[in-house]
Design goal:
By secondary structure, the chain is α/β, with parallel strands linked by helices. The protein folds into two domains: 118 residues, 3-Layer(aba) Sandwich (Rossmann fold), CATH 3.40.50.10440; 131 residues, Hypothetical Protein Tm841, Chain: A,domain 3. The protein contains eleven helices and 13 strands. The strands form three sheets. It has a six-stranded mixed sheet, sandwiched between helices. α3 packs across α4 and α9 packs parallel to α10. The protein is globular, with a radius of gyration of 19 Å.
């Protein structure tokens, strides 16, 4: 069996130690904070706490995806060492990075014709994307070939659920996702919209929920409705949050109480700087495997 590495982008929103444990490599997106350039390196350059505090203080953020030449530089050393590459990328419904990675792969295949370079659209984001990578690492460890793992991903990626809510609509207004009027009214009513990622990997508003306590209950209810085998779900569950750890701990306890057969405790991660630049602080997301996502 040929050697192959697994890689992803920093928008998996796991942490460096976790990815090292999985033996998964990542390439960094980029962002600007008050016109200063940073790499999204999973908190090494700037902690999640500091990043969100700066956003609260009014710092302006801007993100940029990985370009073709960066992918070429990232992939080349693995190929030179004789490895095949299985790269899983951030949802094409949210970014053009998947297309850039494909362009780079096609260019490199001319130079390394005997190596496989497989680029897969995760149709996922943040630690939902991370949960997919965790499963991929497990499958590779079990002895599956690069083709067997890639086939598993394309057959099962839509079974990965992302449900998330935000308690601060001001960042959705800044990003042009909702109008100023809707943001103002929503704030007055303490509206916490509940969204998910659909079958095209795009973010879709699903429910308008009044109050944080109610939206916490509602997000767990979605897991009860959609998780594989319902309350008997025995897979893993990840949560990511944008500097609202207390909320994450409350939701994780609700999940663990409702799903006694979980594969381990709920694992909690920070929403990273790329995704967090668009959601702002106060966002929480819940991820699990279940029925197939729809439109």
């Amino acid at each position: 069996m040929s050697k192959y590495i697994v890689s992803c982008s920093s928008t998996v929103d796991l942490d460096n130690d976790f990815l090292k444990k999985l033996d998964v490599h990542y390439i960094s997106f980029h962002y600007q904070l008050n016109n200063s350039d940073y790499k999204d390196d999973l908190g090494l350059s700037l902690s999640s706490k500091d990043f969100y505090n700066m956003m609260r203080e009014g710092a302006q953020t801007k993100t940029s995806q990985v370009n073709v030449s960066e992918y070429i530089d990232f992939f080349t050393p693995f190929l030179e060492n004789g490895n095949d590459i299985l790269h899983i990328e951030l949802s094409s419904g949210l970014s053009g990075s998947f297309n850039s990675a494909n362009v780079a792969a096609n260019m490199l295949k001319e130079k390394f014709p005997n190596n496989k370079i497989i680029i897969i659209d995760s149709l996922a984001a943040s630690a939902g994307y991370g949960l997919l990578i965790d499963k991929v690492a497990e499958l590779r460890q079990s002895g599956l070939t690069i083709d067997e793992v890639s086939n598993w991903i394309t057959s099962n990626r839509l079974k990965l659920h992302h449900w998330f809510y935000s308690t601060d609509l001001s960042y959705y207004v800044k990003g042009g996702r909702i109008t100023q009027t809707a943001g103002f009214v929503g704030s007055i009513l303490h509206l916490c919209p509940l969204l998910n990622v659909n079958d095209q990997g795009k973010l879709i508003p699903r429910f308008k929920v009044i109050g944080k306590k109610r939206v916490m209950d509602r997000i767990v209810l979605q897991m009860q409705k959609h998780a594989d085998n319902g309350l008997a779900y025995d897979g893993k569950c990840f949560i990511s949050h944008a500097d609202c750890l207390e909320d994450a701990l409350i939701v994780s306890k609700k999940v663990e109480d409702a799903f006694p057969n979980l594969n381990g405790k709920v694992e909690i991660f920070n929403i990273g700087t790329t995704i967090g630049s668009h959601t702002g602080p106060g966002t929480l997301a819940l991820y699990f495997f279940g029925d197939e996502r729809d439109e």
